[in-house]
Amino acid sequence: AGGGGGRRSEFEPVAVQGDSYSLGAVAMLSGAKSSVASASAGGLHTLALTRAGTLYGFGAGSWGRLGMGDDNKDKTAPTLVKAASHLGVCAVAAGWEHSLVLGSDGTPFFFGRTASSYTSVPTPVHGIGPSSGTPVSSIAVGRGYCAAIDREGGLWVWGAMPQHGALGLGEHNGSKIKSARQPTRIDALDGRFIVQAAAGAAHIVAIADSRRSSAAEMAVPAGARFGTTSQQDYDHAMCDSCEREDGPEGGALLVCDWCNRAYHLECHEPKIA
């Protein structure tokens, strides 16, 4: 994706195999009717999703990681994933030797290989999604595992972690659980409304929304959020930027409802219209 020069409506095909030490426009998508909306890079392959919901793959094709059925050849340019054309794909995630895409109805589809699981076309993930009463809102993939967030803020994982990793599922017989054959909810996150998850080679990071979480430790007291002030405090408030009551240009002093800090119109960054 980078490179110099003017803007172009479409790119000519370019090879993607081998090493590259400079930025350049990545291949054509001349068959697409709209521009690329998102992309995800895996171990040796890449997925690209257009704004029209059309899925393309390129790079290594072994183990079905490009989702092209019996065609497991490497692709040197973005190639249409025909088997995903009817899925309404809205998100993509590329792993080491596998891929995960999300349908518009909240169904995750898997293709490629993780541990002993292998499929070469997008296949619904059993145990999660609308058919299981848990439509998915977000997906992520690690080296050999997958993660998904349901619309109620629950985080689910499946696949296998490497030696020093853990899926967040606790322990069994004194050892960390490193694999799960079916999507399994991380119970340790109960009460936390997860809104985003990032999957690394051997670890996971999740972000929870304190406003929608019920866990006591997630609560933010009103005093900590808004501060505790009296009318007298407001009467003698000073600008947090210039530390004066009167503005340099005579602008009004405004108090932020969220952080409880005061700013003159002309002192606030970015400028307040």
How would you characterize this protein structure?
With 273 residues, this protein is mostly beta strands. The strands form 6 sheets. A 4-stranded antiparallel β-sheet has the order 1-2-3-4, with no helix packed on it. Strands 5-6-7-8 form a 4-stranded antiparallel β-sheet, with no helix packed on it. A 4-stranded antiparallel β-sheet has the order 9-10-11-14, with no helix packed on it. The two termini are 35 Å apart. Helices cover 4% and strands 36% of the residues.
Which features characterize this protein?
18 strands; 273 residues
Number of helices: 2
N-to-C span: 35 Å
State the major sheet: 4 strands, antiparallel
Number of DSSP-assigned strands: 18
Show the helix and strand layout:
Elements (H helix, E strand, L loop, with lengths): L35 E6 L3 E6 L4 E5 L15 E6 L8 E6 L3 E6 L4 E7 L2 E8 L11 E6 L3 E6 L4 E6 L10 E2 L2 E2 L2 E7 L7 E7 L4 E6 L12 H5 L4 H5 L17 E3 L6 E3 L9
Antiparallel strand pairs: 1-2, 2-3, 3-4, 5-6, 6-7, 7-8, 9-10, 10-11, 11-14, 12-13, 15-16, 17-18
Summarize the structure.
By secondary structure, this protein is mainly beta. It has helices at residues 222-226, 231-235, and strands at residues 36-41, 45-50, 55-59, 75-80, 89-94, 98-103, 108-114, 117-124, 136-141, 145-150, 155-160, 171-172, 175-176, 179-185, 193-199, 204-209, 253-255, 262-264. The chain has two helices and 18 strands.
